[in-house]
Amino acid sequence: MGQSLMFAVLPPVARSMGLSELQVGAIFAISAVFWVLGSPIWGRRSDHWGRRPVIITGLCGYAVSMVAFGLCVQAGLSGWLALWPAYLLMIISRSIFGAFGSATMPAAQAYIADRTPPADRAARLTILGAAFGLGVTLGPGVVALLLPLGLMAPFYVVGLLGGLSALLMRLKLPENRPPRAHAGSIRRIRALDSRLLPFLIVGIIVAISQASTMQTAGFYAIDVLGMEVAQSARFVGVALMGTAACALFAQLVIVRILRPLPRTMMASGIFCGLLAFATLVAGDSAGSMFVALMALGFTFGLTQPGAVAGASLSAGPDEQGAVTGLMNTTGAIGVIFAPFVGMPLYQWLPQAPYMLNLALASIALVFVLVHPRIRVARPGSGA
Length: 383
Fold this sequence. Notes:
By secondary structure, this protein is mainly α. The chain has helices spanning about 1-15, 20-50, 50-80, 85-100, 105-115, 120-145, 155-170, 195-225, 230-260, 260-280, 285-315, 320-325, 330-350, 350-370, 370-375.
């Protein structure tokens, strides 16, 4: 929920504070660096400590970071702090999310992998992705509902929900996998492991496209579509709800009914991305942007879960925490690169980031169709 909230609220907030597009992107990028460093560590820790303690750690970090970020922005907007101290504190508070919030997803995915036979793993992992998508869907709605209480109210409410979720996990989540006695028994999986590398490549390409699109959407609505700041926040919020709704449909309906192989999920999702980016390049209306973001919902809803499922199926049962931790770095890597690629391109030409994404999606589709490791990723293929 918090991620779509950030994408909807931060661009107009940045314009009000006098921050540039690159400075906004840097907030996401620095947090993402901590995510890339933290996610594999937390994944391995979940193999050692158990899944539940790591999930709770991530939720607590998420709650603290959202409340702290809201306070920092409010201090900057209200004049309690000068621009640069407020901006520095925004970066620090968002970095808490990267360092500690990165614990939740790899531990949760490993929790599901522990309890799921290989034949059902793609569908079950996709349901977890759908839960994330539901949060993305609800995030802009929370923004619209709480804006009358103040621009920062959504940050405080979402932070409170994160803290309540941590408490609920502590009280209700069963932990059937005993913690390992020795950290040395955990196999350390490298990013260049040939079993996982092709799925990491696909995940990174899609993540860069996703991050650059989401980070520029609010600015695009203001600069190209001619919307006012408040109107832009509402439109992008509704559009991102539609994006998440399409991702949910792909994950909860298409995947559950058809049970496609990871390769099919990735190829289908990337093809939807091709259509979406072509529409963003050629269109110049709110309607075309809305349709493109709907198509991107299918891209995000199919491709990333397909890559995670493929990597999980390619690894052994004792490696699931490490694998999911490594795969969860892809989204953060995309956020790191997007500000330094997408934002400068946007400043040169608003459609340029989508042209780049169109080219990246074309490369990714060919890669998925021809790579032998992706072709054989299916139940029973694990190490």
